[in-house]
């Protein structure tokens, strides 16, 4: 069951006009929200990021935070599975094809749920591989835009190389993954690039930094050079659907000793414990 423009209905019954600007121009934004034990994970932060994306494309939010919460609660109820991930998709709406913003057009709002499997345990033990590529995306990567063709092409490079992710480099600096944020460990310090227009502000990224701060893991946010990436003791990726995964091979070369390192293992334990507290309703509201 999905939600589309005021109606809850089966996916196969949902249709969108061909002149929707999301279809014609990719003129819209999206958000992904993990759900654990039928509870959305850090909903407030996800809705704040959605608002940031809407502001970035100058599209008025079609719903209040309370209305979004109600729609999300209903979608969770209508779909099976304690663990789900929700996909929210908002476009500027249906209008004649013209690059300029149309006037008095109702945005298209779509929400769907998908199963959210836990990362396979074997990947937490063995780690995953990644490749690098030049970051050739546009200059507003902080907007979660639905026009994802550059990310798709970069992600496909990893698929072609039988790797989990493509790590992106711009002007000799690490930005992020094609569909993830990236952390490294260098000289016992957990490092990640700062939030700016070059990266998507990840919710899991925030959680990892909060856990590091709370539990005394030495960390910093700063620019990371390509050399630092390639000589890191540990590399890990974070995302709402993959949580935290260790990268143990980069461009065919082992990272550290080729196995998940102690900082990843500590952060993964802390993340799983925090997630359990959230599921039980005991974690403080961020």
TrEMBL record:
GO terms for molecular function: D-alanine-2-oxoglutarate aminotransferase activity. Its cofactor is pyridoxal 5'-phosphate. Pfam families: Aminotran_4. Its EC number is 2.6.1.21. It is an enzyme of class 2 (transferase). GO terms for cellular component: cytosol. Belongs to the class-IV pyridoxal-phosphate-dependent aminotransferase family. This is Aminotransferases class-IV. InterPro entries: Aminotrans_IV, Aminotransferase-like, BCAT-like_C, BCAT-like_N, Class-IV_PLP-Dep_Aminotrnsfr. Keywords: Aminotransferase, Pyridoxal phosphate, Transferase.
């Amino acid at each position: 069951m999905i939600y589309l423009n005021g109606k809850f209905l089966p996916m196969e019954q949902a249709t969108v006009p061909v002149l929707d600007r999301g279809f014609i121009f990719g003129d819209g934004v999206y958000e992904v929200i993990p759900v654990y034990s039928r509870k959305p994970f850090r909903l407030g932060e996800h809705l704040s990021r959605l608002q940031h994306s809407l502001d970035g494309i100058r599209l008025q939010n079609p719903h209040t935070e309370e209305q979004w919460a109600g729609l999300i609660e209903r979608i969770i109820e209508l779909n099976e599975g304690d663990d789900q991930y929700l996909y929210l998709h908002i476009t500027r709406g249906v209008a004649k094809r013209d690059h300029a913003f149309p006037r008095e057009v109702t945005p298209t709002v779509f929400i769907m749920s998908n199963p959210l499997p836990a990362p396979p345990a074997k990947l937490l033990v063995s780690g995953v591989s990644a490749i690098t590529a030049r970051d050739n995306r546009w200059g507003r990567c902080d907007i979660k835009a639905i026009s994802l063709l550059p990310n798709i092409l970069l992600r496909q490079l990893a698929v072609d190389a039988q790797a989990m992710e493509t790590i992106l480099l711009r002007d000799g600096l690490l930005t992020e993954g094609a569909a993830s944020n990236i952390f490294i460990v260098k000289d016992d310090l957990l490092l990640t690039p700062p939030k700016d227009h070059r990266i998507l502000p990840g919710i899991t990224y925030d959680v990892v930094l909060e856990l590091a701060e709370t539990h005394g893991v030495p960390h910093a946010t700063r620019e990371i050079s390509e050399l630092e990436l390639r000589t890191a003791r540990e590399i890990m990726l974070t995302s709402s659907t993959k949580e935290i995964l260790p990268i143990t091979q980069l461009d065919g070369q082992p990272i550290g000793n080729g196995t998940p390192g102690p900082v990843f293992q500590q952060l993964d334990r802390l993340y799983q414990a925090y997630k359990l507290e959230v599921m039980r309703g005991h974690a403080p509201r961020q």
